[in-house]
Amino acid sequence: MPVIEHQQFINAPIEVCFDLARNVDIHTQTTSNTKERAVVGGTEGLLEEGDTVTWEAIHFGIKQRLTAKVTLMEKPNKFVDVMVKGAFHSFVHTHQFIEEADGTIMIDKFQYKSPFGPIGVIADKLFLEKYMRVFIVSRAKALKNIAENMN
Q1: What angle do the packed helices 14-21 and 129-148 form, to 10 degrees?
Q2: Under 8 Å CB-to-CB from 114, ≥6 apart: which residues?
Q3: What Gene3D superfamilies does UniProt report for this protein, alphabetically (predicted)?
Q4: Count of CB atoms situated within 10 Å of the CB of 151
Q5: What digits encode the pLDDT tens for the residues 10-66?
Q6: SS3 helix, strand, coil % of the chain, rounded to 5?
């Protein structure tokens, strides 16, 4: 099971970073390159524990839907969402926030299992793991940019 972990320092308070990361509207803004949008469930505002949202996006030239549920919320330090339905066999995405004197460290930990057994493992090695890493890093940098330019 591949694990992608990325740390991003953000020069903004922990509460700001936490709320931006769970804001559906900001998620749509930071994933515009895949035309991601919430279509069912929590389609706007801040996600809370127990919320389910279905995202529609274009990945690899194919329109896809993925439903995730927020299973843990420890404000303002951590929240976890898990895939309920979608292209992966499974995934768990942990969003952690650590307060620093001059800002916040945001840590994304994305653990996933590809579909299709051995073929999925080959896809991971060939392109999927790199694609997911670029997606997560790009979103983190976009969140950093938004948080640091709010005032």
Answers
A1: 130
A2: 2, 88, 89, 120, 121, 123, 124, 128
A3: 3.30.530.20
A4: 6
A5: 999 999 999 999 999 999 999 999 999 999 998 999 999 999 999 999 998 999 999
A6: 35, 45, 25
Please give the DSSP secondary-structure letter assigned to residue 111: E
Q: Which two three-digit tokens encode residue 49?
A: 């524990």
pTM exceeding the 0.70 threshold for the entire prediction: yes
**CA gap 111, 46 in Å, rounded:** 23
Show the tokens assigned to 129. Answer: 């793991």
Range of 99's domain? 3-148
CA angle 81, 84, 90 (to 5 degrees): 80
Task: Characterize the bridge pairing of strands 37-41 and 52-59.
Answer: antiparallel
Q: How many domains, the chain?
A: 1
CATH code for position 138? 3.30.530.20
3-state secondary structure of 35: coil
Size (the chain), residues: 151
